[in-house]
Amino acid sequence: MISEETKELVEKGVMLPLMEEFYTIQGEGFHKGTAAYFIRIGGCDVGCHWCDVKESWNADLHPPTPVGKIVENAVKYSDTVVVTGGEPLTWDMTVLTNSLKKKGCKIHIETSGAYDITGIWDWICLSPKKIKLPKPEIYPLAHELKVIIFNKHDFKFAEEQAAKVSDHCILYLQPEWSNREKMMPLIVDYVMKNPKWKVSLQTHKYLNIP
């Protein structure tokens, strides 16, 4: 049972429900192929049926961990840190990102954008979901837009989302893993006809790494 004091520290972002943390190769999007330290924060109510980390949804399953400890672990491995989830913006990211910045880290976030943006970010990967759309203020801040393609109707959603980001935002279409064999030919054809988009693959799964 989590104490009221601990709950208050989590609400303030001084502690965070840490699901896992690991040093690996970024598998997706603009920074694919580069080494980074991943911090996966528990808690998400967006509820994508194809989510491959559903165990992250319930924040209560993941121990509230002091931000200082998370930062201490991260800087042992890399100066590039990726904060992901779950949906990390469920929580206040101010303390975590300020602490990482003091250590000279470059900080990336992977988010659906469904919650208010907090924290200081060097790179924002916005991956919007139909179920719970991004807050308007995150669109102009996104460095890359990564839309997951599960069926052919998702191309229309992708274009709707692309219309909201800045001209400097890099646009990616990524096949949902379980449906990749069916959707990949459609994505390839779409990108060839609409070259403002790029193909993103979950290369870490092909490499069999976290």
From TrEMBL:
This is 7-carboxy-7-deazaguanine synthase. Binds 1 S-adenosyl-L-methionine per subunit. Binds 1 [4Fe-4S] cluster. The cluster is coordinated with 3 cysteines and an exchangeable S-adenosyl-L-methionine. It is an enzyme of class 4 (lyase). It catalyses: 6-carboxy-5,6,7,8-tetrahydropterin + H(+) = 7-carboxy-7-carbaguanine + NH4(+). Gene3D superfamilies: Aldolase class I. The keyword Transcription does not apply. Its EC number is 4.3.99.3. S-adenosyl-L-methionine binds at residues 50-52, 86, 127-129. It comes from Christiangramia fulva. Residues 31-210 form the Radical SAM core domain.
